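Tokens in:
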């Protein structure tokens, strides 16, 4: 009886270690992807700049409001209110410049324009 109990405990410990190893691997992969994205010279340049939220709002109205609404509350595209609580700055930049989520078009603002837009989006 004691031997069977020890085998069950050993099995539980092994499963727990495997789960921890998988979680650790996932975390390392996520951090690696984030670092790879953040290592882009464009992204580093944007993050290093001080954005102007007023300018960013103007850029948003010209380029984004048609889909995301003038109040960024969503229309064709999703609401961007509190987007910075759901996505990192790097993720927001990548989303804007990649256009990987159809029907969002690819948008290539200058680093300062992107910093301004990012400043506006993080203020929502």
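Residues out:
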């Amino acid at each position: 009886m004691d031997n069977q109990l020890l085998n069950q405990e050993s099995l539980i410990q092994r499963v727990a270690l495997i789960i921890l190893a998988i979680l650790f691997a996932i975390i390392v992969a996520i951090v690696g992807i984030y670092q790879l994205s953040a290592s882009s010279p464009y992204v580093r340049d944007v993050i290093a700049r001080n954005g102007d939220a007023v300018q960013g709002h103007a850029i948003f109205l010209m380029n984004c409001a048609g889909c995301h609404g003038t109040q960024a509350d969503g229309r064709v595209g999703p609401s961007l209110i509190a987007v910075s609580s759901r996505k990192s700055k790097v993720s927001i930049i990548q989303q804007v410049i990649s256009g990987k989520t159809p029907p969002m078009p690819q948008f290539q603002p200058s680093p300062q324009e992107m910093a301004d837009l990012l400043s506006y989006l993080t203020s929502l």
